[in-house]
Amino acid sequence: MLSAALIRHLFLNAMSHNKLSVKDFYDNLAADYDAEQDAPNFRFVREPEKKLIQDFFDKEDFSGASILEIGAGTGRFSLLFAAACRSYTVVDLSPAMLQQLIQKAEREHITNITTIEGDFLQAPVSGSFDYIVSFTAIEYILDKKALFRKMAQLLKPGGKLFITTTHKTFIRFWGCFGNYFRQHIFMNMYSKREVKKLLRNNGLTPLLIEDHVLKRFPFKGILLVIHAQKN
């Protein structure tokens, strides 16, 4: 039987390897990332996700708000939110992906974006935020408890969380398995029950937890939408 110390050592090693793999993979992909995401084999997920994000955006008033985005990448949705709020802070592990985001912001003359390079769990994010958003990115962060704890700490009282991520389903399991062979990166999956517990344990009230994409009986959707508010 493995000791607790050995299990912790193996877990920390896996987290360290995952960070390096994620950074290297996305540094190499950065210049072509947006084109890849618009390709037909990704569009079946990205188009519904885009609509869900747009629906959330349309229902909220971001004027005067401070927003933090986790795993912003090339900023596929960042500029939409940044143009509507007071300040927009992004964290990403890949400097090459962040450079793509910066170039987009410069072309659009958006000047309220602050970029932070690094692992979100260790990143020096200061202050507190009215909103925290993340779009199919938190699945690369292995320590779920630490992730939700830090998000809750960075939200202002009454602040809102909006996330899209991988839903724990049979189809998604095989998708993550295939993704490992493509990226050599471990990805987390989340169940609705697990998300509810993580939210409530950190003083966050669930407003919406729904699965989408390839949702056909008896299968559940592979994309999970999480909307919550800090008590």
From TrEMBL:
<protein>
    <recommendedName>
        <fullName>Methyltransferase domain-containing protein</fullName>
    </recommendedName>
</protein>
<dbReference type="InterPro" id="IPR029063">
    <property type="entry name" value="SAM-dependent_MTases_sf"/>
</dbReference>
<dbReference type="Pfam" id="PF13489">
    <property type="entry name" value="Methyltransf_23"/>
</dbReference>
